Amino acid sequence: MESQPVVMSKQKTEVVCGVSTQVVCTAFSSHILVVVTQFGKMGTLVSLEPSNVASDISKPLLTTKVLLGPDEPLIHVFAKNLVAFVSQEAGNKAVLLAMAMKDKSMGALKALKEVIRECQVW
Questions:
Q1: With the CA atoms of 98, 76, 93 and 10 taken in that order, what torsion angle do they form, in degrees rounded to the nearest 10?
Q2: Which of 49, 51, 59, 107 is the most buried (most CB within 10 A)?
Q3: Inter-residue contact 10 to 121 (CB < 8 Å)
Q4: Reduced to 3 states, what is the DSSP secondary structure of residue 62?
Q5: Rounded to whole angstroms, how far apart are CA atoms 90 and 104?
């Protein structure tokens, strides 16, 4: 009998809004790591932690925290919009997002969500 690998990982390279973009998704026991880069490096590291609120337990609030890189409001907004669905679909697991993006437009965000969905490991 063949055993499952301890760490599941998938990667994909796609052209997003005219820029070559690499996406790597890796599932650990307590976190999902999502790397999205247009520069070939990890860039800004953002932690997204779900926390249940009393009013609606089915949809936890995601708290963002920049661990490495510039701590700007746009980073928090982009991170939540990009990977909130990952946390929800993975049973409200925490997500670590590493991103180095040239294009942070709404079109790029939508295209990236689809590429991340294709790399699903959760």
A1: -30
A2: 49
A3: yes
A4: strand
A5: 25
Tell me the pLDDT tens digit for each residue of 59-87.
668 999 999 999 999 999 999 999 999 99
Structure tokens belonging to residue 97: 């997002």
pTM, 2 dp: 0.89
Task: Label residue 105 exposed, middle or buried (CB < 10 Å: 0-12, 13-18, 19+).
Answer: exposed
Residues 48, 84: contact at Cβ < 8 Å?
Answer: yes
- Helices 106-118 and 73-89 cross at an angle (nearest 10°) of 30
DSSP E strands, the chain: 8-16, 19-27, 31-37, 44-53, 56-68, 94-100
